[in-house]
Amino acid sequence: MRTVELVERKRDGGRLTADEITFLVDGYTKDEIPDYQMAAFCMAVVWRGMDMRETADLTAAMVATGEHLDLRRFGPVVDKHSTGGVGDKTTLAVAPLVAACGLPVAKMSGRGLGFSGGTLDKLESIAGYRVDLSTKEFLAQLGRIGIVLTGQTADLAPADGKLYALRDTTGTVPAIALIASSIMSKKIAAGANAVVLDVKVGSGAFMKGLPSAKLLARTMVAIGRAHGIAVTCELTDMDQPLGCAVGNSLEVAEAIATLRGEGPPDLVALTRLAGAEMLLLGGKARDRQAARRRIDGAIADGSGLAKLRELVEAQGGDPRMVDDPGRLPRAPHVETLHATSTAYVKRIAADEIGAASVLLGAGRETKGDPIDHRTGIVLHAKVGARVERGAAFAEVHHAGRPADSLAIAQVRAAFAWSTMPVAPRKLVLGRIAS
Predict the structure, then answer these.
(1) Is position 380 annotated as part of the catalytic site?
(2) What sign does the CA torsion over 254, 259, 260, 264 have?
């Protein structure tokens, strides 16, 4: 086979066979196909798409490049994943809560894609936290404390690890086949029995509209069903950032606040929703009401926070940063934005806030860029809030670089205002499950 012929066929809207897809995936994983050719293929998929069979074949080919863990000895193991958004730190709160309720959580996370923050980047705000556990360490820790949050090991779906980084810097993130295969290849390889997926919808997500988000959800449910994995997809709003904090250490601090019962309402609501669904799929609650009571109990009694501390310590991180988030990295400068007149927040463009965070250094513009864990944005008002003249509506935490003034202006421009009351945004937009 010739790579260029396969790229050209997909560019022209043709279909690829399972063998041809395997050839591309294996060749790229083994460095036999260069970045530029695989980037061209990914762009062809962005433009032309893949049908359900091609997507299933792509997922299977990615899984086959590495190990497939067997977690049956741990009992039911449930994973949780978000398709990515701005300010989405839900995993940092929900995983410890679920594990504190006695349900093992085994999660392999990724780094940021475009303006969407990555769980690994956030965790690395904690001094010493290791995201490179080996398979042996992964399994040992899951058995010992019932929770693991790490990056993909070199042995699990290595094709996805390479493709994930490539897509981030070549404008090829927003393709349903590539997103679905990336997410589900990791979940299948990591051995979870069930997966709760948060499919983001809106300007700050890869799925801008509900129809495309529903298609992505159905695709991932179908892939899961084919591999014997129960999948629930919650479709949630990302037309404004989730919570108030955007940026790595700022988001870790907000997740800790949520575990202390002090989180922003939308983040708390999504944490309760996802956590309850995980307990339900894992057989730890008889219905959603009982499951939510258990999640609420793990917040109230501090066991969720204690589990996060245990997780951080187990993976080499400094647990004092959980005890006192003031120890987390802090930007040297904070610019506070004040309202010029009394008005209601009509809109907060999540994509613009995300792009501003990248300018500040909290995200990556090119493959391999370092992350500045200190920088980011804190919102003091969400859509529907009334802000008095002179009151703060946002803070920009920056390092004092020349581009920071552009980021500050971008944050200011992301807010739209109304003199009339504005209804708060609806958080949960739908649900698709196997």
Answers:
(1) no
(2) positive
Residue 167 among the catalytic residues: yes
List of residues 6+ apart from 119 with CB closer than 8 A: 89, 91, 92, 107, 109, 110, 149
Single out the catalytic residue among 10, 80, 81, 122.
81
**Cβ count near 341 (within 10 Å):** 10
Instruction: Say whether 11 is catalytic.
Output: no
341 flagged as catalytic: no
Q: Which of 167, 187, 294, 374 is catalytic?
A: 167
| Together in a domain, 142 and 267 | yes
Domain count, the chain: 3
Q: Same structural domain for residues 94 and 19?
A: no
The predicted model scores a pTM of 0.90
Considering the candidates 186, 309, 382, 397, report the single residue annotated as catalytic.
Answer: 186
Of 161, 359, 362, the closest CA to residue 248 belongs to 362
Query: What one-letter code names the amino acid at 37?
Result: Q
Residue-by-residue pLDDT tens, the chain, 434 positions: 899 999 999 999 999 999 999 999 999 999 999 999 999 999 999 999 999 999 999 999 999 999 888 898 998 989 999 988 999 999 999 999 999 999 999 888 877 666 667 899 999 999 999 999 988 999 999 999 999 999 877 778 889 889 988 997 888 987 899 999 998 998 898 888 899 999 999 999 888 999 999 999 999 999 998 888 999 999 999 999 999 999 999 999 999 999 999 999 999 999 999 999 999 999 999 999 999 999 999 999 999 999 999 999 999 999 999 999 999 999 999 999 999 999 999 999 999 999 999 999 998 776 677 899 999 999 999 999 999 999 999 999 999 999 899 999 999 999 999 999 999 999 999 999 98
Give yes or no: residues 168 and 234 share one domain. Answer: yes
389: domain CATH number is 3.90.1170.30
Instruction: Say yes or no: 178 and 278 in one domain.
Output: yes
Q: Are residues 187 and 133 in the same domain?
A: yes
Measured distance CA(2)–CA(66) in Å, rounded: 24
Q: What is the CATH number of the domain that holds 28?
A: 1.20.970.10
